[in-house]
Amino acid sequence: MTTKMTISSIKKSKGVRPLVMITAYDALFSSLFAGNCDIILVGDSLNMSFAGKSDTLSATLEQMIYHTNAVCMGAKNTFVICDMPFGTYTDKDKALTNAIQVFQETPADCIKIEGGKEKAEIVKHLCSNGIAVCGHIGLLPQSVRSEGGYKVKGKNEQEQIQLLKDAKAIEEAGAFCMVIEGVKAEVATQIANSVNIPVIGIGAGAGVDGQVLVFSDMLGLFEAFTPKFVKKYINGASLVKNAIKEYSNEVATREFPQEIHTY
Ligand code: KIV
Question: Which atom of ligand 1 is nearest to the CA of 114?
């Protein structure tokens, strides 16, 4: 993927080809991912897999800005989304002030906010003030404490109707795409078919307009737990641990460094 995606090309991809999105939190990994994905999400999931916290809620705007800048440095030719952390978009004015700070202090292409119909006014306000918005509906990790856990959505008719309303409200408010997380596949597919903007799934089946995974999950680096929807493309944790073990043994036995590593 050599040409950087734009809001327009992302929207036009709907019905043409699935979008590839992955998270990254630093320049090293974003530079490795850039050539093979359309969009990099600086997700507030970094609070768990990078900072070791038990949920995303304590990520701060300053941290998101720091990591977004790092990701953008490593992936200058890739479309980058900065996730707005918990508590930074509780009303229209707060959301705009904080989103402007992200746009002024990073080269991020857009921001992402969690929520459905209840966030539509905020999305509309951001869009009408020059902030491109990616929505996020379904399972909302920032609601984990109020919901008492991570709950798959779309399991009954009431939830299905609500999700459809959420998707339509976010689209009408001006979002150019949305993430749909932890939703029954047939419901996610129905939602993707009901809106005109790309719907990018995580734990939402194959019938949507693209996929996103948290990089530390799909590289097998995050060991605390593995959600059902994650495919581990490599067992990164074992690879890293084995390499460190080998290094440790070689230092202990003076096998490393050798002549070729010596000035
Ligand atoms: O924070 C994150 O990484 C996300 C993905 C789960 C979509 O929002």
Answer: 8
